[in-house]
């Protein structure tokens, strides 16, 4: 499994990449492999305020639907519209073109509550 060293991770298999006061969010390689072929993504609404660990989006695959959770508290400032026409980007490039939303973080200190790459690797075994 690919677990990039420049990201933070959640127990529910989201990744978050800080970009100044914002953070890009998607699901991990492990999560997309478990879901198999992603066929639909329900994106969050731009402007939505979210609490950490609250459901914010839905990813549907040929075998199941899975809630996507906000890794930290913040406001959605952008969504990946490319997923509307090509949800498989989550499978083919989960850490790049398959990102799901951009969040303006309420507090960058919230990142300290997340798993580092080593802890996430241990969690997924």
Fold and architecture overview:
This protein is an alpha+beta fold. Helices cover 18% and strands 35% of the residues. The chain has 4 helices and 9 strands. It has helices spanning 29-35, 82-85, 89-92, 117-124, and strands at residues 8-9, 14-19, 22-27, 38-42, 49-50, 55-61, 65-69, 74-79, 101-105. The strands form 2 sheets. Strands 1-2-3-9-8-5 form a 6-stranded antiparallel beta sheet. The longest helix has 8 residues, at 117-124. It is globular and about 35 Å long. The N and C termini lie close together (10 Å). The relative contact order is 0.27.
List the helices and strands and how they pair.
Blueprint: E1 8-9, E2 14-19, E3 22-27, H1 29-35, E4 38-42, E5 49-50, E6 55-61, E7 65-69, E8 74-79, H2 82-85, H3 89-92, E9 101-105, H4 117-124
Antiparallel strand pairs: 1-2, 2-3, 3-9, 4-6, 5-8, 6-7, 8-9
Helix content: 10-25%
Mean pLDDT: 96
How much beta, percentage-wise? 35-45%
Low-confidence stretches are: none
Tell me the radius of gyration: 13 Å
Largest sheet: 6 strands, antiparallel
SSE-based structural type: alpha+beta
Write down the secondary-structure element order: EEEHEEEEEHHEH
- What is the helix tally? 4
Total strand segments: 9
Sequence of strands across the biggest β-sheet: 1-2-3-9-8-5
| Apparent shape | globular
End-to-end separation in angstroms reads: 10 Å
In short:
With 125 residues, the protein is α+β, with helices and mostly antiparallel strands. Helices cover 18% and strands 35% of the residues. The protein has four helices and nine strands.
């Amino acid at each position: 499994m690919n677990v990039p060293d420049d990201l933070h991770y959640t127990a529910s298999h989201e990744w978050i990449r800080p970009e100044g006061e914002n953070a890009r969010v998607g699901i991990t390689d492990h999560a997309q492999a478990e879901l198999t072929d992603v066929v639909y993504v329900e994106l969050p609404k731009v402007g939505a305020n979210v609490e950490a660990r609250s459901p914010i989006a839905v990813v549907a695959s040929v075998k199941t639907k899975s809630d996507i959770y906000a890794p930290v508290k913040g406001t959605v400032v952008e969504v990946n519209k490319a997923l509307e026409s090509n949800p498989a980007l989550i499978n083919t490039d989960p850490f790049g073109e398959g990102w799901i939303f951009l969040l303006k973080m309420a507090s960058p200190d919230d990142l300290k509550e997340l798993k580092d790459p080593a802890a996430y690797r241990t969690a997924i075994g």
